[in-house]
Specification:
mainly alpha; single chain; 0% strand; 484 residues; 19 helices
Length: 484
């Protein structure tokens, strides 16, 4: 299997697992919005936003660094690999514990800042998840670095299913917002247990791998990660801090979560890309690196038609999933889903820069994003409320994406394929119009969206977007006994 096929194959397996976040996440979201109401869900969304921002910021620091160092050591002696794994686990657990303690202590001040005293006990409970997430993600990153994409996919899939089941059971039992938080905690424990079935790196064995090489990558990636996570969730926090109501926060959080549909491949594409590009660079196969980079950016562009489809049917989707009381979230979702594609492009270009030994460039690209966003929120939120927050997020995302593409061009002289962009824009326009004016009611939407989605794929194929190389990759993903 060639490197493009390896990229697509590894991405596909992890994407299929991460894709469970969509049905399970929306089932959970639909359940919670109905059980907690707009005010209750608004409180839960604020707590979850704050804690998950910290969790994923910390993971982003170690994720790419761990994958890079583990993949380089994978062909060496097991002792070196085990030493790296032990060092990573200790570092992630230690920082996770410190972050959890900091949130517990700062909870009253955060609640006062957001004008919601009820947040204090909820934040303290949710903070217990931070070290658990760090441990589980450290195991998943080690699995990815070793090329065990299937094992990572299994752990991820089980986590999403467990989260749905635990939250439904505990909230239904009468624990309300506390039950939702406890369900999330139980799911992370399950994820960690499954990972330990595949690998058992030790926290306690002596490790001769120094922390300094990790820190050399981790520091700029920490700055980049915390900036990106701050930017990704800053709109909801800014909306509430600038006078938005709890109800508006709940509506905006629904739109944010629904917009994740636009970046379904993002969690899988970046780590597989780092591992594959890093391996090619170690073998000095530079022409293949350039081809792979172009292919990765093309994958991001191919998200655009499906984002347009979702935006066109936004009203029907929100009504079906969350009920009429959340219909005001539809125009916000229609804007934010395109912002998500921009964030995916930033993620992909940053991953390429990390694999290309340019970690500092990622920090230089990411740090300005929340600064520019704050200026935009301060200008537009007082005038347009939640829609102003969404428009600011969209514009800043694509400015950051353009900067990432420029950095890749400086490093590799590679740009996204222009023809792909043109075809995607044409198909996106037609798909969005069709989705908007072909109105459906209730579950007929489940027929409408696949029908239009398949039609858009067919249109891309007729326009010449599916190349012979693409068809060859698809054939490599199909088991042999199904191709007889």
């Amino acid at each position: 299997m060639d490197n493009r096929a390896r990229l697509v194959g590894g991405t596909t397996w992890i994407t299929l697992a991460e894709a469970l976040a969509l049905p399970t996440g929306f089932l959970t979201l639909s359940f919670l919005t109905r059980q907690l109401g707009t005010d209750g869900y608004g409180l839960f969304a604020l707590v979850a936003t704050l804690v998950t921002w910290i969790e994923w910021s910390l993971n982003s620091v170690f994720s790419r660094t761990t994958i890079k160092f583990v993949s380089e050591a994978n062909g060496e002696s097991n002792g070196n690999l085990e030493a790296i794994a032990t060092t990573v686990l200790r570092a992630q657990l230690g920082i996770g514990l410190l972050a959890g303690i900091a949130i517990i202590m700062a909870a009253p001040a955060i609640a006062r800042l957001l004008h919601e005293p009820a947040l204090t006990p909820l934040l303290r409970l949710f903070a217990l998840e931070i070290p658990l997430v760090n441990l589980a993600q450290a195991h998943q990153n080690i699995l990815t670095g070793q090329g065990k994409f299937g094992a990572r996919a299994i752990a991820t899939a089980i986590r999403w299913l467990a989260r749905l089941l635990f939250i439904l059971a505990l909230v239904q039992a009468g624990f309300s917002i506390v039950g939702a938080i406890l369900g999330s905690l139980a799911a992370m424990l399950t994820d960690l247990w499954v990972c330990r079935l595949f690998i058992q790196p030790s926290l306690w064995k002596p490790s001769n791998f120094p922390i300094r090489p990790l820190a050399g990558y981790a520091l700029p990636l920490f700055l980049a990660a915390i900036s990106m996570r701050l930017y990704a969730k800053l709109d909801l926090i800014a909306l509430k801090a600038m006078g938005g109501t709890v109800e508006q926060a709940g509506l905006y959080a629904v739109a944010q979560n629904l917009a994740l549909l636009g970046g379904v491949m993002s969690p899988a594409l970046a780590p597989v890309l780092i591992a594959t590009v890093g391996q090619l660079l170690s073998q000095e196969r530079l022409s293949e690196v350039k081809s792979l980079i172009r292919s990765a950016m093309r994958v991001v562009l191919l998200h655009l038609p499906f984002a347009a489809l979702l935006a066109g049917a936004a009203g029907e989707e929100v009504s079906l999933l969350f009920g009429k009381s959340f219909i005001a979230a539809a125009p916000l979702f229609a804007v934010l889903v395109f912002a998500t594609i921009g964030i995916v492009m930033i993620t992909v270009t940053s991953a390429i820069l990390v694999a290309s030994n340019r970690p500092r460039w990622t920090a230089m690209l990411a740090i300005p994003l929340p600064i520019v966003a704050v200026a935009g929120y301060g200008w537009l939120i007082p005038q347009w409320g939640p829609l102003g927050a969404a428009i600011t997020t969209l514009v800043v995302a694509w400015v950051g994406a353009a900067a990432g593409i420029a950095a890749i061009y400086i490093q590799w002289q590679v740009l996204p394929p222009v023809l792909t962009f043109g075809r995607c824009c044409a198909v996106s326009s037609i798909g969005a119009i069709a989705a908007k004016y072909w109105t459906t009611a209730g579950f007929w939407l489940l027929l409408k969206l696949p029908t239009l989605g398949i039609s858009m794929l067919l249109a891309l194929w007729l326009l010449g977007e599916l190349s012979p190389a693409d068809r060859m990759i698809i054939r490599t993903l199909v088991p042999r006994n199904t191709r007889k």
